[in-house]
C-alpha cells in the first residue's frame, strides 16, 4: 500500500450536485436514481453544503408503511429547503491530500463523505465506501 497516494486516485470525479434552489423531492429522486448517499450543494458553482440521504431520512417518514408513502414524504419535504437540511460547516480536502489523511479525517468525524476542492472548485467527492474499495484492492 502506497502511503502518499493522493485521494484523486479513488475519488468520484463526475459529481452529482444540487443547487440550493432545488427541492428535497428532487434530492430524493437523485439519491434513489443514482444509488448514492451524499450530494454536494452548490451556490453559483461554489460548494456551500452537503446533503446526505440520512439527512432526508431524519425529516421524512421514509419508514412509513402507508400505501401513499411518497405523498407523505412530499408534504414533509415541502416544509423544508435544502439549505435548512444540509450540513453547512464542511471539511474539505484537496485532490492532492493523501488517502491516509482522508481516512484519518473520516475516522475522527461523524460524516462519511468529503468534498474534494481545488482552488475553490469542486473537483470530486470521496466517501468511506471509496476507502473500503481501495483497501480491498490492496489484498
UniProtKB/TrEMBL annotation:
SMART domains: CBS. Keywords: CBS domain. Pfam families: CBS. Residues 11-69, 86-139 form the CBS domain. This is CBS domain-containing protein. It comes from Tenacibaculum tangerinum. The lineage of its organism: Bacteria, Pseudomonadati, Bacteroidota, Flavobacteriia, Flavobacteriales.
